[in-house]
Amino acid sequence: MGTVVSVEEHWALENALLDYLFAVDAMDDIDGMVACFTEDAVVDLTGLELGTYEGSEAIAGFYGQVFETMSHHMHTLSNFRVLACDGKTARVYAYICGMGRSHAGVDIQVYVYYDLKMRMTDKGWKISHFYEAPKLPMLDSVGQVHNSD
Amino acid sequence: MGTVVSVEEHWALENALLDYLFAVDAMDDIDGMVACFTEDAVVDLTGLELGTYEGSEAIAGFYGQVFETMSHHMHTLSNFRVLACDGKTARVYAYICGMGRSHAGVDIQVYVYYDLKMRMTDKGWKISHFYEAPKLPMLDSVGQVHNSD
Amino acid sequence: MGTVVSVEEHWALENALLDYLFAVDAMDDIDGMVACFTEDAVVDLTGLELGTYEGSEAIAGFYGQVFETMSHHMHTLSNFRVLACDGKTARVYAYICGMGRSHAGVDIQVYVYYDLKMRMTDKGWKISHFYEAPKLPMLDSVGQVHNSD
User: Fold this and answer.
1) C-contacting residues in A 10-49 (Cβ below 8 Å)
2) What is the DSSP string of C3-33?
3) Number of alpha carbons in the 13 Å side-chain half-sphere of residue A69
4) pTM score, whole prediction
5) What ipTM is given for this predicted complex?
6) Radius of gyration of chain B (CA)
7) Fewest beta carbons within 10 Å, which of A7, A41, C24, C147?
8) C139 touches chain B (CB under 8 A)
9) Which residues fall within 8 angstroms of residue B20, CB to CB, at 6 or more apart?
10) Are B20 and B127 in contact (CB under 8 A)?
11) Cβ of C97 and B76 within 8 Å?
């Protein structure tokens, strides 16, 4: 696993993912959130038993609702890998520990992997297809948050 | 968020932070600890409801006390970003999971961000201003450690 | 701590360790697992109060048993450092949070450091000596897993 890409390409792709994580954890900038994706991006959360969101408007709606529900967010990145990259498109893989607290006071902690397709645009690498799924069994608290609002 | 710097500059800055984390977790080398900072550095821990420490002597005193209190330390770094860098000074941001056990047997685990100013010296990048604050709510155990010695 | 190596060398070594972690977490490819090591590699797990495994056959046997015991694996890497590197051999250090669940339903989580010797081969960097030990005190659950099968 892992493709031979230059250190610069590896870093540019990892940095695009860090942009996404920073926006998710800032929880106050929907435009910045949406700017991490291509306009036609698909966010497929069926691996978490949630929905699929296609295009900027649907993606903005999803993250807007998340930001209203949560009071704290922290998503830590590790084990970032470039699975494929031809300079115009790429597929990357990473581990994320997603942590947070809802306004209702429920703490969540999920250990997932991200499997993302990225596309080079005139504003740099953007996420065109987002998929995540649990790498470790999920705790009941995740369901509690989604039932609590 | 995130500034365009070369991969080499990014790596040199991240490596300076790893030097700091290694010294904090080694818990046995105050000189190596102090060497991570400029002589006039400020360590501002008010975000953790602790004090502010200015200059090598005060910084040595603070870490000396921490090392006496704790039996184990592990600080994991993720999501490192260069917010600004002009080659002589830089501002960097990162997530840290700070974990440890005190000699009194209390385990602590804090999820924080670091917001650091660094300065290029004749011995490489050094921390000139250190600030950290919780990214997730802190557990009561942190107060227990500080009350236990 | 930390040796001056090029960003490319640093990244190649880190990538070799990521290959190992990916194989450990995939839990389905003993050949890919063994391919992360030199043929004469030594896996010294005495720091975890486990055994020492020398050579491809013994290493395959060990990981085969682990993969049979566990239903989930996730090993997150951080604080990767190159301690020494002469282009042909290297010593690297890293933090790993090793998490998993056994088929018997026991969850484990260990906070360890890896201290590895690596060797450049015609197939890239491979692990020639593997050592890990706890960085934080281990929970009882680790013993439970090893007694549960």
Assistant:
1) 10
2) ----HHHHHHHHHHHHHHHHHHHH-S-HHHH
3) 18
4) 0.93
5) 0.92
6) 15
7) C147
8) no
9) B33, B36, B127
10) yes
11) yes
